[in-house]
Design goal:
With 460 residues, this protein is mainly β. The chain has helices at residues 22-26, 30-38, 298-304, and strands spanning 56-59, 69-72, 76-80, 97-104, 110-116, 136-144, 149-160, 163-168, 173-178, 193-197, 215-220, 227-231, 239-243, 253-260, 278-285, 313-319, 322-327, 337-342, 347-353, 363-368, 374-378, 385-389, 395-401, 404-405, 418-419, 425-430, 437-442, 447-452. The protein has a nine-stranded antiparallel sheet. The chain has a six-stranded antiparallel sheet with strand order 1-2-23-22-21-20, with no helix packed on it. Strands 3-28-27-26 form a four-stranded antiparallel sheet, with no helix packed on it. The protein starts with 21 loop residues before the first helix and ends in an 8-residue tail after the last strand. 5% of the residues lie in helices and 37% in strands. It has a single domain, classed as Neuraminidase.
Length: 460
């Protein structure tokens, strides 16, 4: 791999002017204002609570009556789809809930497609299945936002491994990603992306043109159909897939890897860069996306051609005409970075870099609300939060995992008693039309939450 360049005059950093005035920020949207505030700014700070929504309090689940979450006053929630719950098709809900996206149906209902990051070869839980031995996959859920009620659910794809994250497409499907390159017992290759419609069953044929590697998340540009992909590895690449035919990803395309331009022309690492750093970018083609065991993986191929490498790229989301990407272990202290890539300007900015674990502890999944606000799912140690990001460049806790299953269990649920407050948050996604509902998962014991309240009064 080409030696990386870290810092110094070799970077082509630009747009590091003085901070915008308060008057100019008023006219900007939340993320535009955030970008103006953070260009060349000091590391962000963490508020003890949202400046708009207020501090967190225990709130009882309207399904079980248990205080599973802490939320600001005025917010409430419903739990659904616990691990082991029978779905509408009779199949038990798989565990390890992870990435998820929400789609608005023509009848006003909300459809969710949810990943299950199961990683064993104990058998597929439904058909269609890519590999009959593999037990990962997806389930679909229907929610009525007007009545605040979950209506039905079904298993939509299995035979995959470690379905960690993914992303929604503008044409109404979920791209589910395998976060592994393991071989099945029969030699079946894993490490692919699969497509699942919000209203039916998934396609068990892998989208091989998107490459074989430890996939994490995707974000699709609705204007061009270009798919941006992250890789949970170190070193990892940020990729884009240029489809031959928009909305028909199986028709083929070209996989490319991001280049962060430097004066020396060498591969560049952004592992330790802080908030405000900004760069010009370009792309190189990956010659062998669907690599075989023993061959160079795509990140190694790209780095050899001058592409940039990152530390554990995980969450990705399209919003505000940009791609937001999370480096879970990046930043000056290894506690996380959030990047913003602007395809119109072919530039990338470090939107946020955590100065220490007390501010943000290894973010993972990310989503953007219809109002432009950012939600970050925390996947670190100790207590786990959903964090919001304000237009003033400050991060705040919005929800805290308080899931404790009492010794006697929960009536009607098969999850084991225990303290799950350290379980990671996953799959945050807003109802796409009005943004009045935020959906998210607690990976363990495996619960889906629908949260509602006065979102419009704050930065989310």
């Amino acid at each position: 791999m080409t030696e990386t360049v870290r810092g110094g005059a070799g970077r082509r950093q630009f747009l590091r002017g003085s901070l915008a005035t308060a008057a100019s920020l008023v006219a900007l949207g939340p993320l535009e204002a955030l970008g103006a505030r953070t260009a060349g700014a000091a590391p962000m700070t963490k508020r003890p609570s949202s400046p708009d929504y207020g501090p967190l309090y225990p709130v009882k689940d309207q399904t079980t009556g248990l205080p599973l979450l802490k939320l600001p006053k005025g917010f409430e929630y419903i739990s659904y789809g616990w691990t082991g719950d029978a779905m509408s098709d009779g199949i038990r809900t798989p565990g390890a809930h992870d990435g998820m996206a929400a789609f608005r149906r023509p009848d006003g209902k909300v459809a969710l497609v949810r990943n299950h990051e199961q990683g064993s070869f104990t058998g597929a839980f439904t058909e269609p299945a890519y590999n009959q031995a593999a037990n990962g996959g997806t389930t679909n859920v229907i929610f009525d936002p007007d009545k605040g009620k979950f209506l039905e659910s079904w298993a939509s794809l299995s035979g995959t491994i470690r379905n960690c994250a993914g992303g929604p497409t503008p044409w109404g499907s979920w791209l589910t990603c395998e976060e592994t390159t393991v071989l099945g017992p029969d030699g079946t290759r894993h490490g692919y992306v699969f497509e699942v419609p919000y209203d039916g069953k998934g396609d068990p044929r892998p989208l091989r043109g998107m490459g074989r590697y430890s996939h994490e998340a995707v974000a699709v540009d609705p204007n061009t159909g270009i798919v941006y992909l992250t890789e949970d590895a170190t070193p990892s690449g940020l990729y884009r897939y240029l489809p031959t035919k928009k909305s028909d990803l199986a028709a083929g395309g070209e996989l490319q890897m991001l280049v962060v331009e430097t004066d020396s022309g060498t591969s560049y690492s952004t592992y330790t860069d802080g908030t405000g750093a900004e760069y010009r970018t370009s792309w190189v083609r990956i010659p062998n996306p669907d690599y075989a065991p023993g061959e160079q993986r795509p990140a190694e191929q790209g780095a050899a051609l001058g592409a940039a490498v990152f530390r554990r790229l995980e969450g990705a989301w399209w919003g505000n005409d940009r791609v937001y990407v999370v480096s879970t272990s990046g930043g000056p202290k290894g506690q996380g970075q959030v990047f913003e890539y602007d395809p119109a300007r072919e530039s990338m900015r470090v939107l946020f870099a955590s100065p220490d674990a007390s501010v943000l502890n290894n973010p993972d999944n990310i989503c953007v609300s219809p109002r432009g606000g950012i939600v970050l799912c925390e996947d670190g140690d100790d207590f786990e939060y959903l964090h919001g990001l304000t237009a003033d460049g400050e991060i705040f806790p919005f929800a805290q995992n308080q899931v404790v299953i009492p010794a006697g269990g929960v009536p009607g649920k098969s999850v084991n008693p225990g303290d799950y407050t350290g379980s990671e948050w996953c799959g945050s996604t807003f109802e796409p039309k009005n943004g009045n509902w935020l959906f998210a998962n607690a990976q363990s014991p495996g619960i889906t939450f629908a949260i509602t309240g006065p979102f419009r009064s704050g930065s989310l």
